[in-house]
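Case study.
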Amino acid sequence: MRIITIVGAGLMGSSIGFPARENGHEVRLVGTPLDREIIEHAKKTGEHLTLQRRLPDGYKYYQFEQMGEALSGADLLVSGVSSFGVDWFEHEVLSVIPESLPVLCVTKGLQDTEDGALIPYPYLYKQHLKGRKLNINAVGGPCTSYELADHDPTEVCFCGEDMQTLRAMKEMFECPYYHISLSTDIAGVECAVAIKNGYALAVSLAVGLSEKRDGKLHYNSQAALFGQSVREMRRLIALCGGHDDNIIYAAGDLYVTIFGGRSRKIGALLGRGVDFDKAMEELHGLTLESVVIATRTANAVKKLIAKGAASANDFPLLLHIDALINDGAKVNIPWAAFETEFTT
Amino acid sequence: MRIITIVGAGLMGSSIGFPARENGHEVRLVGTPLDREIIEHAKKTGEHLTLQRRLPDGYKYYQFEQMGEALSGADLLVSGVSSFGVDWFEHEVLSVIPESLPVLCVTKGLQDTEDGALIPYPYLYKQHLKGRKLNINAVGGPCTSYELADHDPTEVCFCGEDMQTLRAMKEMFECPYYHISLSTDIAGVECAVAIKNGYALAVSLAVGLSEKRDGKLHYNSQAALFGQSVREMRRLIALCGGHDDNIIYAAGDLYVTIFGGRSRKIGALLGRGVDFDKAMEELHGLTLESVVIATRTANAVKKLIAKGAASANDFPLLLHIDALINDGAKVNIPWAAFETEFTT
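After joint prediction, the assembly is written out as follows.
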């Protein structure tokens, strides 16, 4: 039996403990200061407030003040925070844990830099905490929290620098509904599964466009935008220095995200011709990871274009999404820009 | 104005004339002997019996006996037959047309050979009609007939040996809802869009599995199988000698096919644990392209494996589909076989 401490009791943080707990490990779920109610409610009822699922028997619950206790004897720390919690996690958690404790992050995202690079969180953490020798790993691949909690089988990828650590983590989590590939290509896996958030919004434009046109749900446009997304995502993975095979995580994760929730909602609203600001109002100002990641990715690409290291022709869909979000543009899928002539 | 003669008045044959007709060209729709009623009905009502859509004003209708008349002065012949009509098309149409008449085939499919190769129809036609110098092109990409008729925008790829012919065809069909890339990589495009039929069945297994488990539609498994499909399809495109970039047509076409109809139905039935023979009974013995293409592709791969030119580890999903269809196996997704360890 291993002890797995999860910090961040949101949807994915709370769900990823399911396979570990069902494998017989001790799972300790620690709420951030934002999760106070979730932890209180789970302690009392065994249910998760926002996931709206029963959590596994034997889960142990801690408020953030009890993190020290929750980390005592832990074999693995899981970061369950979203991309909006990474600074908090870095300062409040990563800077105080022992260096010997491996970390597995569920957070998907990238940070763009001044010179147009896109840096995944495991690298960012390492840059910021230079003095510390942390063993930071991450999860990518198609897996939404609700469906993980519902035991819908899937296959994800754990990535990190050390294959031995990855194998040890795999042993804790692998089960009949949670299958795990391993990769030391952190840049490739993390880029793949971050950028799909922006493209999920892009594919969802077709949902809104077809609803507006004739009130029906059509799939040709979604599929063509999916194909174009695969094309652009491969280019982005290459720009991030990742191996091309990671496109399978990007494509799978894009697929599940399109049917996921908020990225689809904002995309469909924009597709119907609603202005970005109004669309965000309709979503009650929820800060969306798809919006953040599309903006950051586009910022990086625009910097690379400005210095001649990338071509605008290679990212027409991403740049259109960026224009919708950040320049007040109206939806107008740049179909002609997707067309190619290929000669063998 | 150009004259475009379509032979085969099924769903796609009848739909692909929409953009051409709306661009002002003359479109002549010729029924095969199986399409007699469709042509009769369309002549009388202007509507298509099985597509259940109004056909464009100005479409001209011909029974097969009138093909000569329909071909008179034609600038392009479109083959609208399904993969079950290719032999008929070869003998009854391709062997009698003038060599100067370019041909565009909507038929998606591959034929496996004794030595484990997979040959797309344009090449097969050329092999079989060696004495004739035909200019045979094909359409690939995400485009279902219903949605084309409904003007849901998409992007497809016309492939053929001669870029000038491809550009001329593009001029006839390109319109605001039908965008066209061009490629001389016939093997790559045709392999990509044929094999997706087998993988659409594969992804749909997850639909049946989740419906059986808790009566709900889940997406994690579909997405993971989508990712694995992308992985295996890239390998198949490479085996067919196609360029890797064609994965975008395979992925887009796979996406639209999953939401399409029969491939999803048979996959979902198999996923629920129904035997293949019973599943086919439920579908009233419809001969399914997904079943044919999965079988042929698996046959080719098995021959390559037998002679050491491919590895079973590279195609676990395809081989499982083949076992379901042809060996009476029960559904049991080989998740562990999808897992990889990748070291940079």
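Observations recorded in class. Chain A has two domains: 3-184, 195-338. The longest helix of chain A spans residues 186-214. We will return to this complex in the next lecture.
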